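User: Sequence recovery, please. Input:
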């Protein structure tokens, strides 16, 4: 793992935005795996401001988001689809057909998960997967457990994860869905390259375990240790417990 420390969130986001945009110009048909949440907000802000007036050619870029809440989809406030539209897709000239999102309202969630795996495969796999990390060590919605799912699946969200997402639902925990669809561990680990961003001291324990701890299903991000091309980008708070 390559570990990079930044003075703050803004420098981290600007650095990753520069790299992403360079990657898009090197490979216009790049396939990106994207996260939602609080951490990438600064990254998307930076990317959309640099994409302004056609400075970045998004016309062939393909994306797949990591996850979506069960029961929510396009048009639902609180869905990750709405988050992505607001934070990025509404501001860049990406082809709607090139945007891959899980549909949390699909009639058959199992069929929707299988469709997503096939779509990623048909696109040639993920070139770069960008990740955040939960304070409990989850990546995507692969929550700590005795065993982890390899493929895209329906995930039961832990209390801590639901609380962390309450902001999307007016702070009302009762409105946060109990389940989500999520890429699996193998879906993520098959990406050619992985970049994990973590900011804030509340992530420092999970970050330390991911980098220095044992491989364990109790800290799903620890499995990134086996991937040959992982960059971990940290602000001071998140790097606090590293030796
Ligand atoms: C979101 C996702 C999650 C988040 C993680 C951190 O698509 O897959 O794993 O990356 O929960 O969330 P924030 O950035 O809100 O702390």
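Assistant: Recovered sequence (243 residues):
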């Amino acid at each position: 793992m390559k570990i990079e420390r930044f003075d703050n969130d803004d420098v981290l986001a600007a650095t990753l935005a520069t790299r992403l945009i360079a990657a898009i110009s090197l490979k216009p048909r790049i396939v990106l795996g994207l996260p939602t949440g609080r951490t990438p907000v600064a990254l998307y802000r930076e990317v959309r401001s640099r994409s302004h007036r056609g400075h970045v050619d998004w016309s062939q870029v393909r994306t797949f988001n990591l996850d979506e809440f069960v029961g929510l989809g396009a048009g639902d406030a609180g869905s990750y689809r709405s988050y992505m539209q607001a934070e990025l897709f509404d501001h860049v000239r990406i082809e709607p057909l090139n945007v891959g999102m899980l549909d949390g309202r699909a009639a058959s969630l199992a069929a929707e998960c299988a469709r997503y795996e096939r779509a990623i495969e048909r696109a040639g796999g993920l070139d770069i997967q960008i990740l955040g990390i939960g304070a409990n060590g989850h990546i995507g919605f692969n929550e700590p457990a005795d065993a982890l799912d390899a493929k895209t699946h329906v995930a039961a969200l832990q209390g801590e994860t639901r609380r962390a997402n309450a902001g999307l639902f007016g702070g009302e925990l009762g409105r946060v869905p109990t389940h989500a669809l999520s890429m699996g561990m193998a879906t993520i680990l098959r990406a050619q390259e992985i970049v994990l961003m973590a900011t804030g001291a509340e992530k420092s324990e999970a970050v330390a375990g991911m980098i220095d701890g044992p491989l364990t299903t109790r800290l799903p991000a620890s499995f990134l240790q086996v991937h040959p091309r992982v960059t971990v980008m940290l602000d001071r708070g998140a790097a606090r417990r590293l030796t």
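The longest strand covers residues 193-198.
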